[in-house]
Amino acid sequence: MSHTAHIPSHRKPRRSASKLAVRAGVAGGVLSTLAMAGTASASPAAEPATETTLEMPVLNMDLGSEVSSAVIKAADNTRAQALVGELTAQEETARTGAAAEAKLAKADAQAKADAEKKAADEANRQADADRANRASGRTQLASASASGSSSSGSSADSDDSGVRAPATGSASAIINFARNQVGKSYVMGGTGPYSYDCSGLVQAAYRQVGVSLPRMSQDQSAEGSSVSLSNLQVGDVLYWGSRGNAYHVAIYSGGGKFIGAQNSGTGIVERPLSYDPPTGAVRIL
User: Fold this and answer.
1) Which of 14, 24, 28, 79 has the fewest CB atoms nearer than 10 Å to its CB?
2) Is the pTM of this model over 0.70?
């Protein structure tokens, strides 16, 4: 019987290569320590060697569990980092989108403001052009106005401006209607009741007293009889251009003023004759 038979068996199921490597390392360390101790205790007088039986330590480390735990932890960290990255990307996309929308809204607002300014500038330019065009015919009337003044000035009841005093009756009804339209819009082709062009306003005003006038400015300027601008009376039709070929008409309202649908920029207004001096006038009543 072997002298080591009394050592109990410690057989366990076969372990993996990693566990065997750990056991071998521990065992080697223990043997090295014993060898060093034996060398240090040697003396010149050798003593009989005593046989010593060593019991190898058993490692109970579960390396598989630790590795699995480490892998799970690493996977959790990776997922957490991926989630953080995804959230960061979404936030960046949202910021970029908001900035783009704000930029677009600003561009739209600027474009709208530019368009409104352009429209206002165009309306003012058109008004200036209309005044310039109407003023171009004034010299053509100068000689006729002078002769008309000499022939009729003595028989007219004039005020300080050289024009007749306001009339009553039908003329008053025409002016009252026209004055009630002041402030409404000018619309090309408009005949009321919410908007008018120049000849539409004159036609509608004369309709109040039962007088039917043609629709167009040039035809209205050919109606009635010509009168001097210095011999006007309330209700006379003023025209710009030439008689029978006028491009604008209005109604003399007395006191050196007229009422007319001027343009889209001003609408229907009452202004002094000096604002836009007419070329001539006709008397229909």
Assistant:
1) 14
2) no
